[in-house]
Amino acid sequence: MAEALAKDHFIGKEHAHGKTFDLFARPTTKTGLVGWLTTVDHKKIGMLYAGFALFFFLVGGFEALLIRTQLMVPNSRFISAQLYNELFTMHGTTMIFLAVMPLNAAFFNLLIPIQVGARDVAFPRLNAFSLWVFVAGAFMLNIGWFIKAGAPDIGWFGYAPLTSKLFTPGLSTDLWVMGLQTLGLSSIVASLNFIVTIINMRAPGLTMMRLPVFCWMALVTSFLLVLAMPAIAIALVEVLFDRHFGTNFFEVSGGGQPILWQHLFWVFGHPEVYILILPPMGYVSEILPTFSRKPLFGYPIVVFSGVAIGFIGFGVWSHHMFTTGMGNVATAAFAVATMAIAVPTGVKMFNWIGTLWGGQIKTRTPMMFALGFIWMFMLGGFSGMMHAAAPADAQQQDSYFVIAHFHYVLIGGATFGLLAAIHYWFPKFFGRLVPEFWGKLSFWIIFTGFNCTFFPMHFLGLNGMPRRTWTYDANMGWNEGNFIATMGAYLLGLGIFTYFAVLIYTFFKGEKCSNDPWDARTLEWSIPSPPPEHNFKAIPTVHARDAWWYEKNHQEEIAKEMAEHMKAEEAHGGIHMPDQSWYPLIAAFGMLIGTFNFIQLHEPVLMFGSQLLSSHLPLALTGLGILLVSCYLWSLEGPGGYHIHLDAQGNATSPRGDHY
Amino acid sequence: MTRTRSGFRNFFRIGSALVGGLLLTLLSGCNLADKINKAFSLSGPQSTIVVAGPVAQNQYDIFMVTVWVTTGIFIVVGAVLAYATIKFKVPDNHSSDSAPPAQGHGNPFVELGLIVASVVLLVIIAIPTLKGIWFTHDVPEAEKGNAMDITATGYQWWFKFEYNTETVQLPTGGEALLSTANELVVPAGVPVRVHLRTIDVIHSFWLPKLAGKVDMIPNRANFLWFKADKPGYFYGQCAEYCGESHAIMRFRVIALSAADYVKWLDNQKHPARTVTAASTAIDAGHARVEFASLTEVGAHSILSGSPEFDADPLAGWKKHQQISSGENAQLIGEGRRLFSAKTCTSCHTTMGHDGGGIVGPSLTHVGSRSTIGAGVLENTPTRMRQWIKDPEYFKPGNKMYHGYGGMQGYVKLNEKGEQVPNIVLNDHEIDALVAYLQSLK
Known about the structure:
Chain A is mainly alpha-helical. Helix content of chain A is 64%, strand content 3%. Chain B is α+β, with helices and mostly antiparallel strands.
């Protein structure tokens, strides 16, 4: 009896005629606007993340080009000081929170379930919720460009007391505070989802030490996010309370300590650096073995150094604060800890080179970007070590030397890694191969433009040019360096344009390719391109670290095993898939309405110049209401789900499965 | 073997990866050798490489240790990486049916060896770093008795400097600390401890040729020290983003020989200089000044120092100490009256005259400074005229234009929240104010 019940539960029978509350019936359409808005498919969510992230990547890049144009010549009047301050604030915020992080989240979504041999993430609706909350946060941050308040102008670091009502009385700072808060929520929710997915949903035989390095890096990154985001969440709540409810966390006149903001910000902000770079380290650790036809050199030590970076990453935050007068002992401790973190980072470099050694290296486009990553990240690492020497950092801090350093790590490192990853997995998710010539051409333009832009900035910094400055005087010796940097920025912009133009061309007209065009090693290459909704015909059994490489060399054994698995799964009622839902989207919408109105609570609501309401309270409460009601209905709509049945060739018998 | 040929082809690719970016960097903007030399000589007025004092020297020495260590690592690691890429390269169309290479998983001894080597290299950097942290923190024990103390206070967007051990007798009785703005004069060869304070947001005191920066943080008693080896004229700048005109929060430090310093100090302790003349009635009927941006300032011209000044800034600064010939006493007297009548006195101090305000820079000896507007403009009558006419153009968001803490500036907000003119000056009035301020040597 118990067995029968358990089986019924497993195949979802009790939901067949379940009494669920459906204000919005669970949609079943897979295509069109409704299909995308209500999707819970990790691949579609990944695509949406990627689409939004690439859009903001271009926005951030455009902001950067405006900044570089202003700095092309001394005493330039191309844009005003105020606009310049808004631009560099939003360039940093956009690139970190709206471009690189969501692009990494896109790859987490696209790859983790497939690489661990699962059919979706652990909590599909929660996954959709993270996506739409991210969109809400992105909207909050950027809405300032279109309203009277203007975009935030406090720097991406928002140092108190510049964020207090006294110095930035306008709405723009509140938009920044609540925008980041919303994005933080999205990140925490998504990370919990990925942690559970990686730990609990691995296919049989996929032990932790057989997990692809990318999944390991995603796991470490997710833990970093879950632990680091609360620090900034608390700090942002404190700023919000200072601004609106008269608390004195950072209010100087009330005895507040602005230095505490810096500690809270950087105890988030430094792990954030690793949140940005660890996933690209994962992509590179996948790409190098594929194009060297060799397993990753020293897999355990690469994994452990990734974990070590995650741990030590929480103990070095004050190296962003060497000039704040922390005292000698604290400065010395953080300087030494920062040098220590160079060791596991160096270990990764050595192991990547070890992977190349003795391989058969094909320098296809993804490999070019991956090799570019290694070279550029190495240079960024060197200037990082220069910063770790605290007395030298007293000259470099807040100069263009720092800008050179972190762009080498975040463009030469993170972005090159992401560009490699896009090229590498593009055939998997679109079934078409990017033309090699144009891919390599875009690489060389990007590579040249990038170095042309940022290498001179080392010299500008050493020659005393401070960052975040709207203009500079002509007698400082900075004219030539700035001019070259601006020309480089245009070249970099041209390279990025070429890169995406080629991708768009490939999407429509590219050459179709096989399931495994690169002769790769991990599970995602074992399934069709683009992957079907259910990913795998049968949940694979993992026999070795490079699971697909093993399968390619043991085809008979695997075919037999797979047939058995398919039979067993069909006996359990077929492939169980999650149902779509409206509520993640509606909940995120409610949150957007609530927060946007909450931060201007005491302002009257104006429309066409006349006063509509005396305060924003009713609107804020409406948003809160939408959020709460949709969460409640979300929990009532039941787990849902349906089954897909496969024919002998492994194709779904009906696109909708046995949907009821 | 095909590998060799592709290896050569690849050598050029890797070669361009190594030097291509660098060469293009050097050549893309300009092709004149002297321009390249100028761009990378790193000897600008805020250079951290060509330094002029022991603190900056120590910071530079430590930087060079990191440069040599990382260059060494780059040569070794880069060579291995380049060699591996070239040696093990196969053509892009290499068949995936061919026999794969040995599927090696790593070598623990190599990995442990490299970890040990990394640690050794980091210790080489760590030792001078730790020594330097203590050395650059405070004046060395042996020189402490000799050190002088300055308090620097950051304002949005200028610096106030007070001499902690120098007092001036106030004309009204009592005494106050000697205070000046945006130009700090110190004796060369004497260690100077600067106590860093701020009145509003976080600023940072950066004097690249003499010392790395330390932040001015509210509710925090930071300090730094520096010593100028020889007399000289040094550029400094705020290095922490502090609001709209952060870019134009600059200052100067002038190091003088001991004898010159004493003379300067003596003059500073005098109240504002008075040019005697009969006051004339102020003509109020002139046209109002438009608040439009100036057009006579060339967009790319050097603002803070003319070529003649930059040729020898210290001599240029000394010239500013001299009283200019052909002073018009009547005009100066009129300027002095206007300075009160136009409410300049609410923010600026002119000790001995009517100015008593403390929220703006002290102008008691403004005529003797080499720059105005926190280091943005050279202090010439023309520049001062432009500055008084439209400060917003040179320093967006400045408090003289927008008002500060309830006091109104050049503009005020009307009941609708719109900006309307508050202080209006005609050209003659500006000339009078310039004549007066230039007389305050």
